[in-house]
């Protein structure tokens, strides 16, 4: 009788150990699955947010230069092309304007600037202002602190790695236009090695 009780106790202990090991394995697997799911979610968030910003930029750029069918292309004051661009090691911008209506007897313009700033190179800002006059190139490069700009990415989650703007003129017999290539590279704030790279190429519309 005593021997049977001893065997039962040993079997119970073995079963308990096996159960604990199984629970630990299941728990470890669950944690790993959760980590993988969380990482995948963050990667998808990065890709989707970056693609959304690039799509917004692409759609708005199609309006650049529109003057209400008055026969010419609008330009930022002091700019030689419809899209005013700058590019540097840790900064870049594209600026443009288009008519959105009237204010009284005057045309109403929407002035738009997308920029990566020196000293804040991990952020991509968009600055928009509706008014009856066009911005000039000096205003465009000095928009910090004006209150019309906001960061397109939540810096707690996503940061900008690079905003590269390239412009090349294309001239034909009857018209001159430009091809503008914009590359937006972002990364996860807490994992800079995980990046998303989006490129768009825009042919300036010739509103003339």
Q: Helix amount, in percent?
A: 25-40%
Which residue ranges are poorly predicted, with pLDDT under 50 across at least 5 consecutive positions?
Answer: none
- Number of discrete domains: 1
| Continuous helix count | 2
How large is the radius of gyration? 28 Å
Beta-strand segment tally: 8
Distance between the termini: 105 Å
Numbering strands along the chain, what is their spatial order in the largest sheet? 1-2-3-4-5
Secondary-structure element pattern, one letter each = HEEEEHEEEE
Please give a structural write-up:
The protein is an alpha+beta fold. It has one domain (46-203). Helices cover 31% and strands 40% of the residues. It is built from two helices and eight strands, in the order αββββαββββ. The chain has helices at residues 2-61, 137-140; strands at 84-87, 92-103, 106-117, 120-131, 149-151, 158-171, 176-188, 191-203. The mean pLDDT is 86.
């Amino acid at each position: 009788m005593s021997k049977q009780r001893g065997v039962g106790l040993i079997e119970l202990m073995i079963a308990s150990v096996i159960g604990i090991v199984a629970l630990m394995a299941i728990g470890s697997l669950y944690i790993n699955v959760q980590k993988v799911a969380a990482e995948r979610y963050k990667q998808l968030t990065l890709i989707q947010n970056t693609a959304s910003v690039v799509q917004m930029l692409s759609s708005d750029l199609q309006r650049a230069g529109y003057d209400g069918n008055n026969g010419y292309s609008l330009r930022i004051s002091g700019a030689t092309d419809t899209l005013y661009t700058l590019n540097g090691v840790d900064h870049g911008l594209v600026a443009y304007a288009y008519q959105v209506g009237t204010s009284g007897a005057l045309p109403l313009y929407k002035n738009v600037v997308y920029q990566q700033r020196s000293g804040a190179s991990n952020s991509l800002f968009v600055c928009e202002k509706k008014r009856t006059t066009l911005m000039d190139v000096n205003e465009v490069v000095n928009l910090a602190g004006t209150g019309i700009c906001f960061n397109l990415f939540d810096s707690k989650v996503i940061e900008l790695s690079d905003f590269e703007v390239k412009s090349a003129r294309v001239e034909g017999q009857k018209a001159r236009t430009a091809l503008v290539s914009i590359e937006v590279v972002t990364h996860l704030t807490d994992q800079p090695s995980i990046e998303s790279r989006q490129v768009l190429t825009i042919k300036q519309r010739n509103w003339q």
